[in-house]
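Hi P.,

Sorry for the delay on this. The queue was packed all week, but I finally got your sequence through. Input first:
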Amino acid sequence: MKEDIESELKNLWNNHRKASLGLLIGIIFGVFVLTFGFFSALFMALCAVLGLQIGKQLDKGEDVLGKIEYFFKSRFNGH
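Then the structure:
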């Protein structure tokens, strides 16, 4: 029984990786919505995406702090 479930999960992951990942993300987001409420869960998801993007840029060796500084200076200088 346990081997059958494990085999099926491996099959789903190997043949339908993106759908499986989407399902997992949907379940996690649903649990967050039920636990914290929709807007709190949405805020957490946005923070996670922002953190992922910053991490990807740091992995590439890009100047993330310079970009953030430029963003805020160009938006709030003289306004």
